[in-house]
Structures are given as structure tokens and as C-alpha cells.
Design a protein that fits this description.
By secondary structure, the chain is of the alpha+beta class. It contains 7 helices and 15 strands. The strands form 4 sheets. A 7-stranded antiparallel beta sheet has the order 3-13-8-15-6-5-4. The protein has a 4-stranded antiparallel beta sheet with strand order 7-14-9-12, with no helix packed on it.
């Protein structure tokens, strides 16, 4: 089957059904080497910290508290880069991923809710993304449909901390309990300390890892339990994340002041209490 026609990437009915049932997909060769290379300078610019003074908490280490010195970062995060550099907007990854999101969410046309650049430094075994559900971070909305695309800008495997998921956990009736990865008990539940939330695994959880090559994409549902391990290799792991949601959901989020920015003034504990 021919996957790419122009900027459109075709998925099968079986893949669409897998996403609905199991909460994840792995799609090979979504972008070409040339297309990935066009994104590399943007990625490296943000991950270097070049915009850190403007971005404030939107440039941070997702494995450590806010305020960690840049030179000590392990899991480097740059949230919503297109807002800080509008020339990045409507790039090839945006266009190719939206062609897939439309197929997963017919007849509505989903829109980009947020994006982020993520990089795990070499030999940083603690550059972990704690096990969580994306909806655990967000306000309750009528329509919770989410498709989060993670583009591998470097090969990703177990050794350098690829994504892992618990298939079918997107079908659980309720979200699992999320608690802040608090570094200061006096600040528990506050975004003043750290953005990160964690959950505990269940004895019945069956974790599978999703290794991918550069240019390939994983897609996960907002309700699926997932995370990623540290980087035990001597190379970077680089990932470009773009999340799609229903336009009405995004409109509601913005109306209450929620933009996915770590600089939002929306109280974190109020979001947590809704779950």
C-alpha cells in the first residue's frame, strides 16, 4: 500500500480501529529524511535554551524541579515552540500529522491543541517520563478525544528511552489517580514546583515498548497509560510532539485560561480535584 501521496499519509481501517480499541498506533516513514532535516535546526535551537528567557517555565526539565540549571537538564522540554517562533507554524509535520488525525476523527476536523520538543540527553538514566495519562494533566471537557503524535527525530528504542504504553488502558472507565511528583511536600499539588504528575502501575498492567526509526511516528490516545524510560545510550533521543483535539474542546480550554503552557495561571490543584 502506498502510504504517502503528497503531504497526505494514508492509514488503514485496521489501524484506525486499533487506535480506538488499544489507544495507540505506530506508523513508519511518515516524514522523509529531507523533511526531518528541515525540522532539525528548529529543534536544536529550542533545545539549546536559546529562547529560555522568553519562554520561562515553557523551557524546563520534565524530570526535575523548575529552576534546575540548564546545564543540568536531563529531559529537556520546550512547550509550544510555534507560539515563540511563528515561522515554525504549519510546518511539514503539522501538515502530515493533520492528514492522519482527520482520518482518525471523522467527520470532524481536529486542530492542534499544543506541541512540544522533547530531548533526552545521552547517558541520563533518570531522564524518565513518569507513567501517566495525558488527561490527568488537563481540565475535564465534554469531548476528551485526543491524538498525540510523537515524531522520532532520532531512532528511539528501549535503551534511549522510547515510549511505552499499556494497551487498552484508554478504555478504563475512570482516569487513574495522578499525584504531583513533588520535590517539596509544602508545595504538593502546585505548579510552582514541577509540572510532572505520576501514577502507580497496576499488577495487571501489560507494558509494551514502541521503538521507532527517525521519521516514524507513534500516536497515543489521551486516556492511555504511558511513559518512557531514561536514556542509557550515548546518543540523544529527540522527539517532536503535536497533539490534536476537537476544536470545541480547544475553545473551552482557552476560555478558562488553559493553554498547556507551564506559565498558565490556572491553579493546578483545581485541575487535579476534577479527576
Amino acid at each position: 500500500m502506498k502510504r504517502r501521496t503528497g503531504e497526505n499519509y494514508l492509514i488503514t481501517e485496521q489501524e484506525s480501529q486499533q487506535f480506538a480499541d488499544q489507544g495507540y498506533l505506530v506508523l513508519p516513514d511518515v516524514l522523509t529524511e529531507e523533511e526531518c532535516s528541515s525540522l532539525d535546526p528548529w529543534f536544536d535551537h529550542f533545545i539549546s535554551g536559546a529562547e529560555s528567557q522568553i519562554m520561562k517555565k515553557d523551557f524546563c526539565d520534565m524530570s526535575q524541579p523548575y529552576g534546575t540549571p540548564i546545564e543540568e537538564f536531563q529531559l529537556v522540554n520546550a512547550i509550544n515552540p510555534s507560539l515563540y517562533k511563528p515561522d515554525l507554524n504549519n510546518n511539514i509535520f503539522h501538515r502530515a500529522s493533520q492528514s492522519i488525525a482527520k482520518q482518525l476523527y471523522t467527520p470532524r476536523t481536529p486542530e492542534i491543541d499544543y506541541e512540544q520538543f522533547l530531548a533526552k540527553k545521552p547517558t541520563k538514566e533518570k531522564a524518565e517520563f513518569a507513567m501517566h495519562q495525558d488527561l490527568g494533566y488537563w481540565p475535564i471537557t465534554k469531548n476528551t478525544w485526543t491524538a498525540t503524535f510523537s515524531l522520532a527525530l532520532t531512532d528511539s528504542d528501549i535503551i534511549n528511552g522510547c515510549l511505552y504504553v499499556i494497551p487498552g488502558s484508554n478504555k478504563e472507565n475512570e482516569l487513574r489517580k495522578h499525584v504531583p511528583a513533588s520535590y517539596d511536600s509544602n508545595q504538593a499539588g502546585s505548579r510552582d514546583d514541577s509540572h510532572t504528575l505520576v501514577i502507580e502501575a497496576l499488577p495487571t498492567d501489560n507494558i509494551i515498548h514502541l521503538p521507532v526509526k527517525r521519521g516514524s511516528v507513534t500516536i497515543h490516545d489521551g486516556r492511555i497509560v504511558h511513559g518512557s524510560g531514561g536514556n542509557n545510550s550515548d546518543i540523544w533521543r529527540k522527539t517532536y510532539v503535536v497533539a490534536y483535539r476537537d476544536p470545541n474542546t480547544i475553545e473551552y480550554e482557552r476560555s478558562i485560561g488553559f493553554t498547556h503552557s507551564h506559565n498558565d495561571t490556572l491553579e493546578w490543584k483545581n485541575v487535579l480535584n476534577k479527576h
